[in-house]
Amino acid sequence: MMNKDKVNLTSIFTFIILLFLFGDYAYSQQSIEQAPEGFDVETANIGRGVIETVEYESETVGTKRKANIYTPPGYSENQQYPVLYLLHGIGGDEEEWLNNAKPQIILDNLYAEGELEPMIVVMPNGRAMEDDRAIGNPFEQEKIEAFARFEQDLLTDLIPFVEETYPVIQDREYRALAGLSMGGGQSLNFGLGNLDMFAWVGGFSSAPNTKEPEELLPNPDAAKEKLNLLWISCGVDDNLLHVSRRTHEYLEEHQVPHIYYEEPGDHDFDVWKNDLYLFSKLLFKS
Ligand code: FER
To answer: 199, exposed or middle or buried, with CB in 10 Å at 0-12, 13-18, 19+?
Structure first.
């Protein structure tokens, strides 16, 4: 009787350990819950971050380009910060997150709760072309190409500008790249394509500009070794869900740790606000 109980206990323990080792327990969506009620509502009497618009010289485009930068509550030049580069969608520009999500409210609230690592958030214009305004037909070929060209602007113009201008930690472990839709595709393409530059990568409702999985991540082992966080999320009612799903399936198949989160909602800012809340909480933590 005693012996049999022991055997049962041992096999239960073994099963649990195997579940942890080989199951996708750590990356399953059960571990992710929607942002709580009120996460995006301004709270009185808390510390507030500051948003400023900067202009940087872009050699890639040959113009001065704008970006919005949020520095956290209590920001000090005497500290050094990690940076999240946060990208907009096909019809947006450097104002899109600010106008539609009020990320400063979401982030200020998270800081007030002690839930965020202090970080600088950079919201650039991801359409790297001379006239980068969000006007006319957003699907024009030259605009789509400009979203791809932004990789060079980001790596060789914007990041160096930010790192010369702000007190930031200049190391891949302290750089995150995320975005919504077209910007989600950019984040996956540029982030996974430049693992020497980014350790934290997120695609929210990523658009069809996302490379096909084999091209996106030809060397899954490098990603396994280098990434601290790979986040893929999408609303279940979004027509673009197939892009996130195919990426997730490839990552599963190649056992690349990632968070895959299908959430209620469509292709809109209710989803992306929720994503920003959930994703930012994970950043720059061990
Ligand atoms: C597409 C459908 C949607 C596409 C891009 C989008 C490049 C982008 C949507 C967005 O950014 O909101 O076929 O192709």
So the answer is: buried
Q: Which structural domain range is residue 170 located in?
A: 46-282
Cβ of 208 below 6 Å from ligand 1: yes
State the distance from the centre of ligand 1 to the C-alpha of 124, rounded, in angstroms: 18
Residue 139 falls within a domain, yes or no?
yes
Residue 12's pLDDT band (boundaries 50, 70, 90)? low
The two three-digit tokens of residue 141, written as one number: 């070929």
Residue 139 CA to ligand 1 center (angstroms) comes to: 8
pLDDT at residue 24, rounded to an integer:
45
Q: Could you give the CA distance from residue 271 to residue 131 in angstroms, rounded to a whole number?
A: 29
For residue 207 and ligand 1, the question of a CB distance below 6 A is answered with yes
What is the SS3 assignment for 235?
strand
Domain count across the chain: 1
Mean of the per-residue pLDDT values of the chain: 93
pTM (2 d.p.): 0.91
Q: What pLDDT digit, counting tens, does each position of 135-147 carry?
A: 999 999 999 999 9
Q: Is 209 in the pocket of ligand 1 (CB under 6 A)?
A: yes
